[in-house]
Amino acid sequence: MKLIIGLGNPGEEYKNTRHNVGFAVVEEILKQSGPSYAKASEGENFQFSKKFNAEISKTRFSGKPIVLAKPHTFVNKSGEAVRKLKLFYKMKPENIVVIHDDLDIEFGNFKMSFAKDSGGHRGIQSIIDHLKTNKFWRLRIGTSNRKLTTARHQRTLKAKKESVGNFVLSKFTPTEQAELKKVIKQALARLAESLP
Description:
Shape: globular
CATH superfamily: Peptidyl-tRNA hydrolase
CATH topology: Rossmann fold
C-alpha cells in the first residue's frame, strides 16, 4: 500500500490557489479511480478524520491500493498529519508520496524526486522534521511564472516575503487552470509509472 498526500490549505478561500495544487492532484486521482468513485469531484469520498486532522480516502491507483490524504493542518504544518498517518498505516517513508506546489519549477512542468531537501518549502520541511527523514517521494508541480520573478526582486526582505506569500496564495487564472489540467494528467501518468 502507498500513502499519497496532497498539500494544501483547508477552506473555500484557498481553493484553486497555487499552494493548493496538491489537493487538486489527489482529488483528480480519486476522480479517475473508477465508477465507484464518480462523485469524487464533489468531495463525497474524502472523509474527514479528526484523528489525523485530514481528509482520507482509500482507493486503487494504477492497480495498487493507496490511501489518499488532504491534511487540514495548513501547508506549513503538514508534518503533524503526515506523521500520524505514517504511524497508523505503518508506512515506510519510501512508500509515501507528497504532492505539492514548487516555486523553483516553471508553471506547466513537474518533477518526481526522492530524498531531496525541502528547497525552502515549509510544508515539506515540516514533513522532514516530523518523519526525521527526507527519504520519501515528492511530485513537485511547478507554479513559477513572471509574477513570481517580480515578487522575488522586491527591495526589502519583508516586501519580498509578503509578495511571494501573496503569490502562492493567489488563484490560477482561467487559462492557467486549463493548462493545469493537462499538467496534472501528465504528472499522474508519470506517478503511475514510478510507483513500485
